[in-house]
Amino acid sequence: MAKIKFEDAVKGLEDIVERLEKGDLPLDETLSKYEQGIKLYKQCIALLEDAEKKIQILVKDENGVFRTRDYELEFTQGNNSK
Amino acid sequence: MNLASPLPMFVDTAKSRNTVLTISELTRRIRGSVEQEFFNVWVLGELSNVKRPSSGHVYLTLKDAHAQLQAVIFKSVAHGLKFEIQDGLQVLAFGSVTVYEARGQYQLIVERMEPKGIGALQLAFLQLKERLEKEGLFDPAHKKPLPALPRKIAVVTSLTGAAIRDIVNVINRRFARVEILIYPVKVQGEGAALEIAQAISDLNTISNIDVMIVGRGGGSLEDLWAFNEEVVARSIFASRIPVVSAVGHEIDVTISDLVADKRALTPTEAGELVVPRYDQIMDACEKIKTRLVQALYNKILLMRSRLLRIEHSFSLKRPFDKVYRLQQDVDEIMQRLVTTGKHMVQLERERLAGIANRLDSISPLRVLSRGYSITTLVIDDKLIKSTEGLAAGNRLKTRFSHGSVVSSVVEVLE
Questions:
Q1: For a Cys staple, B249 with which of B102, B172, B187, B218, CB 3.0–4.6 Å?
Q2: Contact B171 A56 (CB under 8 A)
Q3: In a domain, A82, yes or no
Q4: Is residue A51 part of a domain?
Q5: CA–centroid distance for B281 within its chain
Q6: Which residue from B minimizes the CA distance to A52?
Q7: Among B174, B291, B300, which would you mutate to test the A interface (most chain A Cβ atoms within 10 Å of its Cβ)?
Q8: B181 touches chain A (CB under 8 A)
């Protein structure tokens, strides 16, 4: 699937829906716009589901090269003190 | 020249009467006494004539209503001043008075300086705020929108502070599937501002970061100071990644808050601003999809009802009706055309007859029918109204009502 930004997909979908709601397009154009809309909707859902939780710390070594290491979640349990 | 042994302030007067001093000697003595007398003093005055040559030292005049004092702030001290030294500021200055021998001028060597009536930090904040505002760094036009569905969020803060814990808590609470990249920095103390600025520009070289949070938990004005430094403001402004600032606990606004694309009051709020609510976004997507389907359905209903209308319409049942009606229209038009044509011809006829009558009434032929005739010269067909110019031998043509004759003039009778 082509890489599309979520905002762009939603915007495209909204534009199509608004155009179709006017109801003045010929039937074949309506159908092709509908298909486009459904495609965008599927892309939105895919983008929503296609992510994972990962918390990492960025470390820059003396040569200026970035590495990452995992962040320990040791004090995230209901600890709200400063 | 031995400066280590400052002279007593009052030199023996007898001595000074009997000895002629060199200028250098006198100046040296004055310097000694001044340095001893005015060592480590606080003065209050207004700044004027502030000059900054390339050496990095700052030269200025401190004055009040009745007097003025030359002063110098050496580079190392000037560098450490938080606020900007500007003409007109009321300040408290601490230092020692000395004499600049080359010019025979006494001056205050400033070691510390505070603005009067307002903390140095507060003044520095106000001064920088005014300067950056003029430059347009806080302009809403420069503020970038936050992404609706960020997948990678960078956080510039201290690893040990409350801010990162608060943000991670938000992510856990929302079961968010996002990547968090923490760039650990010092958030207070010496060098913190530079680290924060560096972090922001470093993160801009890493791809796929959708948004970043820059901040720390609450603290005193001194604790938060790094977020009021120009270098941090500039790096936030230069960031192509949208920046959410989250400094402290709602009390103070920092320069960073003003430059950032979005200000969060606390790190927790920053987390809530950037971490997507999947349930809400999913709902919105479903709603719009429902509208899409409904729009298509409505279109189909509309088409169907139009088909039905056509199916039951009069014209579909009797397809030639329309043709016949059209033909009828054509006939009607033709009929009107013909009628109009006839009428026109009649009118023309009558008009012609009228003209003929009028012609007839003035026609010379009418006169001829009453017995008159018309005589012309044969040679040029000129009408003859008298004998003038006629001579014997001229040939004449005479027209009667019916026919004409040619005759010769035998004699002209005058």
A1: B218
A2: no
A3: no
A4: yes
A5: 32
A6: B177
A7: B291
A8: yes
What's the pLDDT at B276? 84
What is the predicted pLDDT for the residue at A28? 85
B161, B182, B292 member nearest A34 (Cβ):
B292
- Inter-chain residue contact A23 with B151, CB threshold 8 Å: no
B47's CB contacts (< 8 A; 6+ apart) are B60, B61, B62, B85, B86, B87, B88, B89, B90, B91
CA pair distance B285, A44, nearest whole angstrom: 7
Chain mean position to CA B380: 95
Q: What is the DSSP string of B166-201?
A: HHHHHHHHTT---EEEEEE---SSTTHHHHHHHHHH
Single out the residue of B210, B207, B265, B254 nearest to residue B232, CA to CA.
B254
Q: How many domains does chain A have?
A: 1
Residue of B nearest to A24 (CA): B299
Whether A66 is covered by a domain: the verdict is no
d(CA B246, CA B167): 10
What mean pLDDT comes out for the span A44-57? 85
B296 to A34: CB separation less than 8 angstroms, yes or no: yes
Query: Nearest residue on chain A to B171, judged by CA atoms?
Result: A53
| Separation of alpha carbons B80 and B305, rounded Å | 82
In order of A9, A31, B284, B294, the CA distances from A18 in angstroms are: 14, 14, 15, 12
Contacts of B362 (CB under 8 A, 6+ apart): none
pLDDT of residue A78: 44
Tell if the CB–CB gap between B165 and A58 is shorter than 8 Å. no
Report yes or no on A78 lying in a domain: no
Residue A25 lies in domain: 6-59
B90 CB within 8 Å of a chain A CB: no
pLDDT tens-digit profile of A52-80?
888 889 988 888 888 888 887 544 444 44
**Taking a C-beta distance cutoff of 8 angstroms, is the pair A23, B298 a contact?**
yes
Q: Which one of A44, A60, A67 would you mutate to disrupt binding with B, by most B Cβ within 10 Å of its Cβ?
A: A44
**CATH number of the CATH domain containing A12:** 1.10.287
Whether residue B116 is predicted with pLDDT greater than 90 in this model: the reply is no
Asked whether the beta carbons of residue A76 and residue B165 sit closer than 8 angstroms, the reply is yes
Predicted TM-score (pTM) of the model is 0.61
